[in-house]
Amino acid sequence: MYDIIIIGAGPAGISMAVEAIEAGIKTEKILILEKADEHSFTIKKYYPDSKLVTANYKGFEARCTGVMCLSDSTKQQTISYLDKAIQDYSIHVEYRETVHKILSKNKEQKFVLVTDKNTYESKVVVVAVGILGKPNKPDYKLPSTLNSKIFFDVTSAEIFNSKVLVVGGGDSASEYCQYLVQKNNNVTLSYRQSDFKRMNEINQKSINTLFDEKKLTVYLNSNIVSVIDEQGSPKVNFVERQSEIFDYVIYALGGSTPENFLKLIGIEFDGPEPILKEGYETTVPALFLTGDLSAGKKGGSIIWAFNSSKTAIKKICSNYLGCKESF
After folding, report:
1. Half-sphere exposure of residue 38, counting CA atoms within 13 Å on the CB side?
2. Does domain 144-251 have CATH number 3.50.50.60?
3. 2-133+257-321 has which CATH code?
């Protein structure tokens, strides 16, 4: 059982761990889960070496309120600063590990996190992922007239009592099917391979159970060549089988957006923005958002990420962990 599990090892996630340690939480009670091979992946991948990492970004004042602080720096200086924080505070980061589910056990003040490698328990969860990322799309063109019928995540529209095709073979595809079946939909899963090698064991079992209970139709070795508008509904043309008309088609081809992930774990939204309370706590008690996700759709600066961690730890200490964060 951890005190805090942090999802994302960027500036927000690293500073969240630092603030927690400074507040008196033991290092071994803090865990960061990062899906990439290394921390601060967005900065390393998308920032040119010559680009200055600015503290003041998109109008946010560059004034530090927490333990960590950084002025305008080169890309390498920024990475070195974050490297040093991980080393100096002995922060435990598990790399190449993707979180698929966060289950809240409210009566016990506990979360169960399911990843592609392990299952963890924590009293508090902080989501500190960035806002970059767009869903992958198929090679064939999709009719613009079907924009209200074709989606790339499962939360873009309320879908009930409908015939739905999910396209994909990874964990997102399985989770979409599970979600849609719960909404009393007639769900079909189409995957071009012969088996679901990309799914973790839990999601594979879920798919098999739904199939055995006749709640899910599965098309394996299934290749789609086109989708056309058939009087307002998606008509899907397959190579190996007859064409079929669906009410909705949902693609789960990777690159799912943070918004979709947040909705799936139960966070409520007001339009495009997650509902956040004091200390960047979500509508799920003891589940917090920091960094870009707490700054709005356009994201924030590194200083914003650092400061949001300071703000969150105050609420975490006072409401959940009883740590000695000083105001």
Report:
1. 10
2. yes
3. 3.50.50.60
